Amino acid sequence: MDLLPVAPLDVLRRRRSAKWRFHPDDVLPLPVAEMDFDLAPPVQDALRAAVDRSDAGYPTPLPTLADALAGFAGERWGWEIDPSAVTAVTDVGVGVVELLRLLTRPGDPVVICPPVYAPFFGWVPEAGGRVFEVLLVDGRLDLPGLERAFAQHPAAFVLCNPHNPVGRVHTREELTELVRLATAYGVPVISDEIHAPLVLPGATFTPILTIPGAAAIAVSLVSSSKAWNLAGLKCATIVTAGPRLADVVGRLPQDTPWRVGHFGVLASVAAYTDGVPWLDQLLATLDDRRALLGRLLAERLSKVSWRPPEATFLAWLDCTAIGTGAAPRELFFTRGRVALEPGPRFGANGSGFVRLNFGTSAEILEAAVDRMAEAAAV
Ligand SMILES: Cc1ncc(COP(=O)(O)O)c(C=O)c1O
After folding, report:
1. 353 touches ligand 1 (CB under 6 Å)
2. What is the chain's alpha carbon radius of gyration, rounded to the nearest angstrom?
3. Is the dihedral angle over the CA atoms 39, 42, 48, 53 positive or is it negative?
4. Is residue 50 included in any domain, yes or no?
5. Does one domain contain both 282 and 180?
6. What does the alpha-carbon distance between residue 40 and residue 47 come to, in Å, rounded to a whole number?
7. Are 198 and 311 members of one domain?
8. Which of 19, 30, 92 has the most ligand 1 atoms within 8 A of CB, as the residue to mutate?
9. Domain with 256 in it: what CATH number?
10. Alpha-carbon span 280 to 301, nearest angstrom
């Protein structure tokens, strides 16, 4: 399969998105979770056609978005979604916060598993809750730790599957046990499945709602925005599979679907229906970059260790041999002019780690590791 090309750096630097605007031109930006590949051709066509029609008004997510997602999820994961149980939301962040507002009373604990996607730490208090941490153990869910936490009756658990930043795909067995515990203690599970289409060769994604019993206790958030690189278009979906969680979703603010981006809906429909061959090419390309990064680290930057991710285009690099806290990130930035996410943003147990975005060309990846190696050698 042909790998996806990436435009040269001077062309990428013309982009106006956050990844390319945060830093001066001498910095290689590998932090923000945006990829450098061109948009999938069907997505480009859908957006161009909308511009040609001057079609930039309010969105109509239903039924097209729900049908397209259901078709994709059925084909890809054998996950039978009822399109009438799909609700469009602005983005995954808005979806999680709005659900938490409905499930949480002021000050209620909400469980998350650091190191985890940094905004989880903000979404919980935004909804009035209090973060209750159950740390990952060796990159996996700490199921006994979760049971102890659930016994204290938190308002909800926000799961990240696949788990950013460690790139772990929770197994069917782990999720089965999680659902058993959540059911036993009556803790609703909000499963952020935004990275699901980005599961790489070697791993298998299990949608939480395919676990027996999950329908009564869990809700899933899915979006095309990570895998097809559409974050700026503002469109995600909440999926339920049973009346209890559907009732919660039914209490979302009435205007919720109106707050979705029209271009996001059009692009997502194109992605889910005609963008799957491109997605497969993307996964082959990311698999190639993952292997390249492994070789580069072993050859040139052996102070840094990692466990290759099972999903995502994000690498969680253990730089504790270089420093603690955000020191490695600062060193790579100031001496190497490579921008990475500092590990402590993902939780205190991210001390000494950095997160690197390998959704880019082999050339940029190689240049970044060279610069990091030089910075670390000083
Ligand atoms: C786990 C996770 N959830 C949510 C988001 C953000 O999604 P959205 O832009 O739809 O809020 C990201 C972005 O990288 C993410 O990694």
Report:
1. no
2. 20
3. negative
4. no
5. no
6. 11
7. no
8. 92
9. 3.40.640.10
10. 30
Whether 130 and 232 map to the same domain: the answer is yes
Q: Say yes or no: CB of residue 91 within 6 Å of ligand 1.
A: yes
Name the residue with the closest Cα to ligand 1, atom 4. Answer: 92
Angle 152-169-166 from CA coordinates, rounded to 5° = 80
Task: State the total domains in the chain.
Answer: 2
CATH number at 289 reads 3.90.1150.10
Task: Give residue 258's Cα distance to chain centre.
Answer: 23
Which two tokens mark 234? Answer: 């503002």
Q: Is the CB of 92 under 6 A from ligand 1?
A: yes
Distance 93 CA to ligand 1 centre (A): 7
**Domain carrying residue 184:** 55-274
Residue 97 in any domain: the answer is: yes
Q: Which residue has the tokens 């059925």?
A: 74
Closest CA relative to residue 238, chosen from 49, 81, 375: 81
Atom of ligand 1 nearest to the CA of 225: 10
| Ligand 1 pocket residue status of 160, Cβ below 6 Å | yes
| Per-residue model confidence as pLDDT tens for the chain (378 residues) | 899 999 999 999 999 999 999 999 999 999 999 999 999 999 999 999 999 999 999 999 999 999 999 999 999 999 999 999 999 999 999 999 999 999 999 999 999 999 999 999 999 999 999 999 999 999 999 999 999 999 999 999 999 999 999 999 999 999 999 999 999 999 999 999 999 999 999 999 999 999 999 999 999 999 999 999 999 999 999 999 999 999 999 999 999 999 999 999 999 999 999 999 999 999 999 999 999 999 999 999 999 999 999 999 999 999 999 999 999 999 999 999 999 999 999 999 999 999 999 999 999 999 999 999 999 997
194 CA → ligand 1 middle, Å: 6
- Taking the centre of ligand 1 as the mean of its atom positions, its distance from the CA of residue 33, in whole angstroms, is 8
Is residue 265 located within the same domain as residue 124?
Answer: yes
Which residue, judged by its Cα, is nearest atom 14 of ligand 1?
33
Q: Is 231 in the pocket of ligand 1 (CB under 6 A)?
A: yes
